[in-house]
Amino acid sequence: MTTREQGYDAVVYDLDGTLVDLAVSWDTVTSDARELFAAHGHETDDSLWQLLDTAREVGLQTELETVIADHERAGARASTTAPCATELPLAVPTGVCSLNSESACRVALNTHDTAGAVDAVVGRDTVPERKPEPEPLVETLDRLDAGSRAVFVGDSRRDAVAAERAGVDFEWVGAEGP
Ligand SMILES: [Mg+2]
Fold it and tell me: From the CA of 40, how far away is ligand 1's center (Å)?
């Protein structure tokens, strides 16, 4: 039996590294993303996150999202469970707030029969902002009808900062933190 929700009205999890480990080669995703840009006359060696920002400026946002989300959904189908998967279901409203596409989050949850334990899913393409900005987490909490007595559980510094900015507690996956 888990005690994760003790003292909280809602719990929100990050996805990758927290509930599941996506089988995604981010080097391959980045390479494919750069190829998309090159095919449209934009040679670049930017990182994937930089490309996501640039895509809005050069009109490739939809196509780039498709490239990344295809990899993520395949990686979600082939994913393994991460430490927090065994905590589900919880006794309080439960959400997922992820930098991965919302569709990939849903595939991952379905793959491990945990979709029914999650009441709200907010992915990279659900709201315009991305973690560590607070908006995706705030949106998740809104969908759970949760107040500030909530906790966000994640495995990255971005997650910790998002929780701080959203005004909720944060717990690292595992005991040690980063
Ligand atoms: Mg993560």
Answer: 31
pLDDT of 175: 56
Rounded to the nearest integer, the mean pLDDT of the chain is 94
- Which residues contact residue 166 at a Cβ distance below 8 angstroms, ignoring those fewer than 6 apart? 134, 137, 138, 141, 152
* CATH class of residue range 10-21+81-172: alpha beta
Residue 111 has pLDDT above 90, yes or no: yes
CB 48 within 8 A of CB 29: yes
Q: 3-class DSSP state for residue 102?
A: helix
Lookup result for tokens 């494919």: 32
**Do 176 and 151 contact (CB within 8 A), yes or no?**
no
Centre of ligand 1 to C-alpha 39, Å, is 31
Domain with CATH 3.40.50.1000 in the chain: 10-21+81-172
Question: What is the distance in A from the centroid of ligand 1 to the CA of 60?
Answer: 25
pLDDT of 154 strictly over 70: yes
Q: How far is the CA of 37 from the centre of ligand 1 (A)?
A: 26
Query: Residue 148: which pLDDT band, with cuts at 50, 70 and 90?
Result: confident
Ligand 1 centroid–CA 156 distance in Å is 6
Residue 177 reports pLDDT greater than 90: no
